[in-house]
Amino acid sequence: MTIYLESDDDVDLGSNSLEGGLSPKVGSLQDLRMFYLTSNRLSEELPEEIGNLTKLQVLSLWGNKFSNGIPSSISYLRDLEQLFLANNSLSMEIPSDIGNLSNLSLLTLGRNKLTGGIPASMQKLNKLYLLDLDRNLLIGEIPFWLFDFKDLEHIYLGGNNLTWNNNMKIVPKCRLSKLSLRSCGLLGEIPEWISTQTNLIFLDLSMNQLHGPFPQWLTKIGVSYLIQSHNKHSGSLPPALFRSLRLFVLALSHNNFSRELPKTIGDAKFLLILMLDRDNFSGPIPQSISQISELEVLDLSRNKFSGNIFPVFDHQVNLLYADFSSNQFSGEVPTTFHLNIETLALGGNKFSGALPSNLANLRNLQRLELQDNNISGELPNSLLQISYLQVLNLRNNSLQGSIPKTLSNLKNLRILDLSSNNLTGEIPIEFVNNLTRMIEAPPNRTSLASNFVIASFSSIINITKFEVNEPIVNWKKSKQGLSSHNIDMYFLLDLSSNQLSSEIPTSLGALKALKMLNLSYNKLSSKIPTSVGDLQNVEGLDLSHNKLSGPIPTTFTKLQQLTTLDVSNNKLTGRIPIDSQMNTMANPNFYANNSDLCGFQIQVPCPEDIPPAPKPQEHDNKEEPWILLEAIKIGYPIGFLLTIGNIFLVGYFNPTLPSNSHCRRHHPHKIIKVRI
């Protein structure tokens, strides 16, 4: 493409979907003062000729795919004041002469793959106002001189392999408003020097080894974005923490905080995000929490909260994401939430009774999790009117009755888990035919889990990695969390461990987007439909512990994504299909206890593969009687003559001696009478 420049000193081509590389000819634009190529798709390495732009004051290339190292010639840009190279794929070390850019005030190199340490020459950048090195592969000790820059207000060093010298005592000359030391090896209590930074708006000390109680001085500073998750803090939260009207984000997940939440929590009127999951909080949730009208994200999961009276989040509280899972709540399933709520996670508690019909009022729900409770009764038709629902998890409850045909109204379902209940009857054909989201995965998917995060957290989304809890499902024989960032990649149907009967619907093969299908531990019978072989994306298929009969369809050879197959404990017969993928399904346990399966995978030869036994040698016996008669005829006289001959020979060699010699002379031959 041809690019026409409107002026020689200011070029802005940001957000134009530009592709390819940056030509070395860019070095000829020597009068350029401001050069913006942000948010494109440019790749390859940056040319050394960029060092020819000696009049450049602003160079903004962030949000592309540039790779390899930062050109060393960049140190020639002595007039440069702002350098934005964040959010690329740049690697190798930061140029050692980067300190020559003595006029630099804004330097962003975050979200790349840069290695090595922080160059010592950066000590000369005494005009720095913002330094962003976040989320690279940098190593070494964080230099103390960084905090000597009087104009420095923003430091982002988190997400590297940098280390903090816990023995270092510093007296910072800077007045910071934003500081990120995430995963920098901080030990003990929060460094005391941070208490001098009374202008702090953003503080991220997460993923360190900090311990001790929540410091009182931190409540007085009035930080707006406070992220202390993944540490070892303990004790209760001070009530003064929530009296600040500047508090927008509070993330204290993965610590050892305990006791009840302060009743003053409702005073934080402008709190947008509250993350207190994986701690040891107990007792009821303060009713005042429903007074936080700006609250959009609330995560209290994996604590010891209890009680059967839930706060009433009325229409004034714009709560979009609420996770109360893995606590000890009881009573009926709560429904007192804002009508616009998108994610409601209540699994792993002690909720009981039937599913309330007014759940249908939460018409914008996309993710509903009620697994591992004591919910009984039938699936209400009202629940099936939430047309935006994408994730429905009712695993391990006491639901009864049949699967309603109106489940087909949930055309956006991607994950449906009804396993480990007491459902009966057949799998309705109607509900299978209308699960359009499972039939064909829509293109250009966006993650439901992060939509609200981008809206609420946009000012710091590029600095701090924000996490929400992952849906937990039975995936390939084990419970796994599905990544909240890639949740739209998963399509799952789990009806296992119920009392479902009759046949597997042929129409099931239309769910081509399915990644996992589990129908095990039911009473399904008849043959496996050949259409199951049409599930071209399926990776896990479990049909075990049913009453299925007949052969495994040869169409299974089309399942080229399959990595886990279990058809054990059925009545299957015949040869297991053979092809490059099916041959890898060679665990005998996954075929065990069937009627008469055979094949390569289980090392059992099929009858047609066994060579026939050699036939015994046949003899022609038609002439045997004649031969026997002739042998008798010949053998009898021969035997008679041989016997007579033997007798004469015995008599010749052993004659009877006469009584005297006279007799012997006159009778030379004596006749011996023998009776025959």
Describe the protein.
- It is a single chain.
- The chain has a 22-stranded parallel beta sheet. The chain has a 10-stranded parallel beta sheet with strand order 16-18-20-22-24-26-28-30-32-34, with no helix packed on it.
- Strand 37 (472-475) and strand 38 form a beta hairpin.
- The chain is mainly β and 676 residues long.
- The protein is globular.
- Mean pLDDT is 86; it is low at 1-7, 444-463, 621-633 and 647-676.
- The protein is 8% helix and 23% strand.
- The longest helix has 30 residues, at 624-653.
Short synopsis of the structure:
By secondary structure, the protein is mainly β.
How far from one another are the termini? 132 Å
- Characterize the largest beta sheet: strand count, sense, and whether it forms a barrel: 22 strands, parallel
- Strand coverage percent: 15-25%
Instruction: Look at the helices and sheets and give the structural class.
Output: mainly beta
> So what's the overall shape?
globular
Regions with little confidence, pLDDT below 50 for 5+ residues: 1-7, 444-463, 621-633, 647-676
By DSSP (H or I, 4+ residues per run), the number of helices equals: 6
Mean pLDDT: 86
Q: Radius of gyration in whole Å, from Cα?
A: 43 Å
Number of strands: 47
What's the oligomerization state? single chain
Percent in helix = under 10%
